[in-house]
Amino acid sequence: MAPQIVKLDDALQELLQSQVTIRTYEDAIRELVENSADAGASEIIIKLDFQSLSVLVKDTGTGIAPSDLASVGSRYHTSKFHERDQIITTFGFRGEALHSLRAISNLTIVSKQKGLKPYKSWDGSVEPFEELELANFFQIGDLGESGTSVTVTNLFSSVPVRRKQQMQVPEYRTIESIKQSLLRVLCRYSGIRMEVYKTNYTLNALDCIILIDLGIKSSEKYSSIIRNLFGKSVLPSFESINYTFDPFKLSGVIGKSCISSKSHQYIFINGRGVILPSNQLKAINRWLTQTMLDANDSSPTKSKRHFYKYPIFLLNFITETKLEDLIHDDIRGFYYKNSDVIFKMVERVFERFLSSQGYQVERLSTSMLLSPDPRAKRTRSNPTSPTRRTNPKISSPSRQGSPTKNTVSNLKYFQASPSMNLKCNLLNLAPPMPNFESSNLVSPNHSCEDEDDTLYPEIPVGFQLSRKDLLQGYHIVGQVDRKFILIKIDNPTYKEGSSHSPILAILDQHACDERVRIEGLLKDFILQALDPSINILLKLVDSIQIRVLETEQELFTRFEKNLNSYGIRYRIVGNMVIITHLPHIIIQKTMDNEFLKFCLIQHLYDLDNQIKQEDINVSKDEWFRMVQHLPRIIVTLFNSKACRSSIMFGDELSKSDMNNMIQMLQQCHLPFQCAHGRPSITPLTNLEGHGSNSNPSI
């Protein structure tokens, strides 16, 4: 008998719903601070205890009437929003935050209105409050004429898995998120004084970590907020902006330089974070970065290989908003109903900013808006997808040339192996060949242990190449134009139902040798890094000093062990990182200190954003798994070294040379692409009527 459908009990409903509204420690802090700001507070004090996941937020707002304290914490009970058509003028309006906190923590609220005594709400009861209560780190003290203090202790105590997860979040990351929340509040209520403290159990005291008291002119508002929260070096130079796009009023600030993180890009409506479609935000970033960096970087392609730079901006749109204008996302902010209107205004603002700075401005193109992120993950081709249109050219962007229709048509001039006889019209090979783009060749998700993985997209003539095909047997036909190697593959992978005839394939000799060499270089480096008895670092004669932001300093501290494992050692003195040791591959490369700084910071952000893993436990046989987690600068330098030392176009190869190269290529984890991702092998056509053991004549 099927189980009966029943309603969940109230306590379980509250527990489940609370995890939707409050997911993290910083979520709880944000909700409490926004409540204080909405109450008209001129001062907010925040006390944090990371060890117990507790927080106290005390304000000088209007306070809560004793008669209302019993309703505080009840779901959908709020004093801020009463009618559907009401203009939303506050952060909070749903009546869910305190209700959720009560379900997953110990919640105590003390409040005082002007002319009344303070009252306390705790565990559903309301009673007068004595100031001597809670005499610890979270002592409330005098509430003055009016104000409210909310204490949350042992957050997620009823959800142990979530609590354990939160306890593992690095402290610096939580503090950074808190600063982001304070920034949103200050954009809406700029006159608030804010003090943030954290417990110091060693000294049995509270350490002040943030102090904001902005008595500033409106024209300097946003730049002062960013500089006070994140440091002046985040925004060394800037331009304040003020525009009117009826019914919007826009004010904000745009930085004149770029930094290594996208974390300081803010678009607000009334201080509330607005989520633009990802393609719009990516297009803005590409457009601004290309315009600003290409104008200032004498070698922009050089830096783009190693690190990314992003513009800084804060744009706050002021307008009337109603409930139907906003779709709430608890994690990221709000979706605005007319996001395209916001995007057009943002585009206009940046055009004017770039022009005012003397940049040659090209309008944000439709192609840039629609084009995918160049770093987006590529997926494997779908075997059931429609056949690609053929093109009489192999797009193989190898180092000094590519096999074109003309090259293939002239294959009659190559030196064929005497043992090979091929009855096929080489002049007709070009028409069935597809146009191969390097972006379609290999998925970054390819499992190197899976030798049956198809590494090429589907080919119209009915076959696909996989790593297994090279291992099952091949015959060398000969070298073509001292650039390519023509081979016959005996047992290729075919689509279901196709005949199993051999195929003719062409190899880029430079790309193949480059692949062999890059895997050898990376393997040697990784195995040395894994072996504690081998020292891969070299001490610098003159140490390198680089100045970093406060958040970057935290990253250098947090991931010091990871950088040390790759031969990068340093010490931190104030806001300076003093590099004392580097691996040989970096020392060999002449680069300025600023360039090295951004390369290292890029790796730190990759680790912090979990693009790369910090700790990888692999055996020596699994060394290839570590490649994608190496610092980009190290991989790129090895790529360059492999390229320079590889066989070049124009080098004549004997049959023995070609055979040795292919045999080494067979052992590579990614044999179908060179170190830079270009194709190394391209199938040309099938040889119908000739089995693998046939010996036809050419």
Keywords:
698 residues, Heat Shock Protein 90, Ribosomal Protein S5, domain 2, formyl-coa transferase, domain 3, eight-stranded mixed sheet, five-stranded mixed sheet, 20 helices, 31% helix, Ribsml_uS5_D2-typ_fold_subgr, DNA_mismatch_S5_2-like, DNA damage
Q: Which helices and strands, and how do they pair?
A:
Layout: H1 10-21, H2 25-38, E1 43-49, E2 54-59, H3 66-69, H4 97-104, E3 106-112, E4 119-122, E5 125-128, E6 147-153, H5 160-167, H6 171-188, E7 193-200, E8 205-212, H7 221-230, E9 238-245, E10 248-259, E11 265-269, E12 272-273, H8 278-296, H9 300-304, E13 310-318, E14 326-329, E15 333-336, H10 339-356, H11 366-370, H12 405-409, E16 463-464, H13 467-471, E17 474-480, E18 484-489, E19 493-494, E20 503-508, H14 509-530, E21 537-547, H15 550-558, H16 560-565, E22 569-573, E23 576-583, H17 584-587, H18 593-608, H19 632-645, H20 655-666, E24 681-686
Parallel strand pairs: 1-7, 11-13
Antiparallel strand pairs: 1-2, 2-6, 3-4, 3-6, 4-5, 7-8, 9-10, 10-13, 11-12, 14-15, 16-19, 17-18, 18-20, 20-24, 21-23, 22-23
Helix pairs in contact: 1-4, 2-6, 6-7, 8-10, 14-19, 14-20
GO molecular function, one term: ATP binding
Organism: Suhomyces tanzawaensis NRRL Y-17324
Domain DNA mismatch repair protein S5: 226-355
| CATH hierarchy class name of the largest domain | Alpha Beta
Alpha-beta classification: alpha+beta
What is the count of distinct domains?
A: 4
CATH A-level architecture of the largest domain: 2-Layer Sandwich
Runs with pLDDT <50, length 5+? 298-304, 371-462, 694-698
Number of helices: 20
Tell me the strand order in the biggest sheet: 5-4-3-6-2-1-7-8
Question: What is the mean pLDDT?
Answer: 76
Overall radius of gyration: 32 Å
CATH topology of the largest domain: Heat Shock Protein 90
Please describe the biggest sheet, giving its number of strands, its sense, and whether it closes into a barrel: 8 strands, mixed
